[in-house]
Amino acid sequence: MVAQQLDALVVGAGYGGIYALKKLSDQGLHVKVIDAAGGVGGTWYWNRYPGAMSDTESYIYRYSWDVEDLQNYPWKRHYLQSADILAYLNHVVDRHNLRQHVQLETEMKSARWSESETQWIVETANGDTFHTRYFIPALGLLSKKNYPDIPGLGSFNGVLCHTAAWPESLDLSGKRVGVIGNGSTGVQVITAIAKDVKQLLCFQRNPQYSVPSGDRPVEPDYRKQVNERYDKIWDQVKNSIFAFGFEESTTPAFSVSEDERQRVFEEYWRKGNGFRFMFGTFSDITVDEQANVAASDFIRSKIRTIVKDQEKARKLLPHERYARRPLCDAGYYDQFNRANVDIISLRETPISEITATGIKTSDGTVHELDVIVFATGFDAVDGSYTRVAIKGRNGESLKDRWDAGGPTSYLGVSVPNFPNMLMITGPMGPFTNLPPTIETQVEFIADTIAAAKRLRGAPEGENSHGLHKTDSVTGNTERAAPLIEATEKAEEEWTKLCDEISTESLFRKADSWIFGKNVPGKKVVIMFYFGGLGNYRKYLKEIVKDGHRGFRPLIDG
């Protein structure tokens, strides 16, 4: 089979991959996107479990760069269900005639850098080979499924499924269902299926702090106001900390009276949204223990009020810090008032094994089930990369590099010794709302490629195949792309900065996937830049202004 020659190969057809394809194609590059899935959508192609929903409001869970589409594309509720997001992404692909450049059902098997050819050679599971100047993994933060290591996993006679691979034909009506996991996904699926199943047993290791989402139908006047303010909305989003479309609080929790503090908590509980409650109420909930306890106590009081059964309420009450990724729901705690829904604390009675008929806990009870749902999340961030063989200069393995020193990068984009590999949402990118962050990184990558071409002397509008280099020994001239590669020093400094910024955060003290703590045996490391999207964008501008500081000279190669 003849290898396909490209300027850029993008791996992943989600939010990042779609925009990278659009942006780089507009710059005149020959670009292709491949994805293992049968359709575009990335995370939203795979996550079709009942209740799957974005916790970003609808008006900003989309691309900011197509103004006409922002004004006209319909959205009926304040929060989008997974089917809505998938439909939107398909719409964008068709609107901009991108589908012709997308190759689906094509799983990347390996990628290796060829020093002699100054390009990446990417092989796929179906036998295709791509030779590409730029290798752009848009693999997503949450794509490698995490299954717990439970004895007897293969012995169950019923249906086993992971929320990230939900069978379209699965009907839970009248079934006895067990859900393992109660993070964001678990909360959503439990809320959605409780009314339909015969029995629902929720196997919970860590009780969660969840607040209402505030989802409701969109009023016509609201949509009109959003359309009229989109310029200001995006300016605020891109210059904020978390990019969720609200003003983050600058008021410390204990700078106001107890009555005022409770009033603010109640107001934001009613408004809804987990990020808004954590970061819109007071400025120090995730850095000050006393403020954190105040917010925790408020949510616990709500759980006690909502859940009528005292034993269920006791098991649902979180006792750890309120310092994980903030959650919101469409009535999660209310579901435990149903007679067919119960909670099993894995702190008190851990799972000992999965049997042919159900789940056995340490007290000897076998919970008879027809379906077991794993809402156990992902080997997040770096797991998307280390599951495939990626080898850089001198055959260095990305997995070995990260296993030894932790998943590090420069800006969440570039790794030393992996030239022209430009990641979207790689390790140590911003911990923020993803679509605006993805746009920021894609635009930085595209602008850096364009700058490298200009510095190398490519004629206007000519793609990288028009660039040449001459071997100083043989005098032979061959085509070559400019090399874009972070220096070791830049990666070290960025890693240090990410570590320093997160030092005061209570997130570091929680048992969370954000630091890799959800996967047994995984090294606990800094996975994100916690300085906010606005500061990240300023940092990128300064880097560009300073001649792409932190990258090897862009005309080398």
Number of domains: 3
- On the 0 to 100 scale, the average pLDDT is 90
CATH topology of the largest domain: FAD/NAD(P)-binding domain
Number of distinct helices: 16
Largest sheet: 7 strands, mixed
Structural class designation = alpha/beta
**Strand neighbour order, sheet with most strands:** 5-2-1-8-7-6-19
Distance between the termini: 29 Å
Q: Give helix % range.
A: 25-40%
Pfam families: Pyr_redox_3 (PF13738)
InterPro entries: FAD-binding_Monooxygenases, FAD/NAD-bd_sf
Keywords: FAD, Flavoprotein, Monooxygenase, NADP, Oxidoreductase
Organism: Ophiobolus disseminans
Describe the structure.
By secondary structure, this protein is α/β, with parallel strands linked by helices. It has 3 domains: 4-144 and 380-545, FAD/NAD(P)-binding domain (3-Layer(bba) Sandwich), CATH 3.50.50.60; 145-209 and 324-377, FAD/NAD(P)-binding domain, CATH 3.50.50; 227-323, no CATH class. The chain is 31% helix and 18% strand. It is built from 16 helices and 23 strands. A 7-stranded mixed beta sheet has the order 5-2-1-8-7-6-19, covered by helices on one side. Strands 9-18-10-11-14 form a 5-stranded parallel beta sheet. Helix 1 packs parallel to helix 14 (434-456) and helix 14 runs parallel beside helix 16. The radius of gyration is 24 Å and the shape is globular. The two termini are 29 Å apart. 46% of the residues are buried. The model is unreliable at 458-479 (pLDDT under 50).
